[in-house]
Amino acid sequence: MRILSTLSALLLSGAALAQNTTCSASSSDAEVVRYASALQSLTARFYASQPVNQTFLSDATNSSRVSYYQNIQGIQRDTRLGVRAVQQLGSRVSGFSNPSCNFTFPNATNGEGYVRNALQLESNVASALLGATGYTQSPEVAFLLSRLAAQHIANGIWLATQQTSVLFLSNSSSLLPAYNPSYVIASGDQPGRLGQYLQGCVQAPSNPCGQPFFIGPLIGSVGNSSSATAGSNSASISPTAAARRF
What we know:
Elements: H1 2-23, H2 30-49, H3 68-90, H4 111-132, H5 139-163, H6 181-184, H7 195-198, E1 213-215, E2 220-222, H8 225-229
Antiparallel strand pairs: 1-2
Helix pairs in contact: 2-3, 2-4, 3-5, 4-5
């Protein structure tokens, strides 16, 4: 009986160890969490970098019927909570360290420009976080990335709703856009690029399983670009998604 008890204990310990090895965030996730930290901090500092008030926002589209100031204050609070969440997860990941970033931001001289800048940043960061979910095998990391992306999507959708009447196209052939980290950290004015704001403060996480992660209009695929575009009308494939913007 003692032998059986000992064997049972060893088996349980082995199962727990296997679970911790395959599921808990590990040192291999440190790059992904560091990348998420840079993205989340970028949005938090954007809202803190240019204090606004109701007068400043008065010339934004539909400002007469939209509570821009109150909602932007709430969005700013959400971004700070997101920073706190990344730090909380990072404290449990071996090898994680905060990136030292000196961000730059687009300047807005009026409320309309500010809202448009916020919309662009929210949508780009949401797409970057969605793309990053393909670079981790940890449920904890994937969950936080998805949750942060969902929050930025909600922020972006609210901002976009005030700017345009049609957001969802009847002829769309793609789900929400998602971008690979190597694309995101590069500079340029294409949708999804944030390198001009990140200023090289963070590197792209390593490829999952040592192979490129391809993002198509509907699905993603590790090491197989044709699988990412299977069933779509897109004839081209790259590590980024050819997707519609909100």
